[in-house]
Prior knowledge:
Blueprint: H1 2-62, E1 100-106, H2 111-122, E2 127-132, E3 150-153, H3 159-166, E4 177-181, E5 185-186, H4 192-202, E6 206-211, E7 231-232, E8 238-239, E9 242-243, E10 263-265, H5 266-275, H6 298-301, E11 302-312, H7 324-328, H8 330-333, H9 336-339
Parallel strand pairs: 1-2, 1-4, 2-3, 6-11
Antiparallel strand pairs: 4-10, 5-11, 6-10, 7-11, 8-9
Amino acid sequence: MTLILHMACTFSTSQRYKQSERILYSLWRVLAGLAWVFAALFIGNALLVTDYKDIHRQIHNEERPHGSETLPKGIVTATSDLEMRALWGNHKMNPENQTNLLGMAVGIKQKESVDKIVRKFLSSGFVIMLFHYDGNVDAWKDFEWSDRCIHVSAVSQTKWWFAKRFLHPDIVSEYEYIFLWDEDLGVEHFNATRYLSIIKEEGLHISQPALGPNSTDVHHALTRRKPRDRVHRRVYQKFGGTKCTEDSTGPPCAGFVEMMAPVFSKASWRCAWHMIPNDLVHGWGVDFRLGYCAQGKPTENVGVVDSEYVVHNSVPSLGGGFTSDKVSQLSVLEPSCKQYQREVIC
């Protein structure tokens, strides 16, 4: 009987030992599984953090100007302006807050017209940049305002050549509006301050002053002044095979200004600058594409201001008017005419 009880106890102890082994083994498997899970989570989290840091660094660098990625953020100056500075001290040569820019290609033969234009714009607090296509800068020193203007000289270059190279959007980003005018415009009926007020109220990103009745050369009916209007954005007329109606959405019926006196908002100029080919000379045809830069609404954001108008005197510059020989040379002077033949950009 004692032997039987001893055997029963031994068997029971063995069973409990095996059961404990199974429990311990199961517990070990659970702990091992949890360890693998935590290890995977730790590694995954480390990878995610690394990826996030890389993405954040990449986005941060993309926001910076090309070439400045290695510079500390606090010393990066991405934009500039055309404000002239005194040689000594931290003083501006012109203490006025100048927030608009006039750029104009000029020759000394048109000094009387240019003088009137410059005086108008200086009185409205503009920065003036004169592009001298005849290379004659010294002759302008007779005008008291000459030292207040920025002078850039390159012989036989037009305003678009100058604008592409000297009016990069990052250079003129401080200015609300950029006026790029020809030199042969009469401004007796034009006030720059009132003009700015109108285009701001009307929401015009691209505009021009209307051409008055005494203008000698009006190429498009849309730019002709409407005496009873303050601003107009379209014209209702038939041009050859083109009939301008309420449904018309593009040039020459709507969303159009000419290249003789365009005015750009800061945002529209950033777009237009990128559209100008490097070999653009006269700008013919580009005006038909400016609607791309009207901030999405060319029929609303492009317009002609009637209440402040100019007179186009159509004075030949850069050595005279265009003869048939000069027109035939356009394919040589402006290769972009071939590149953009279907776009009519030349």
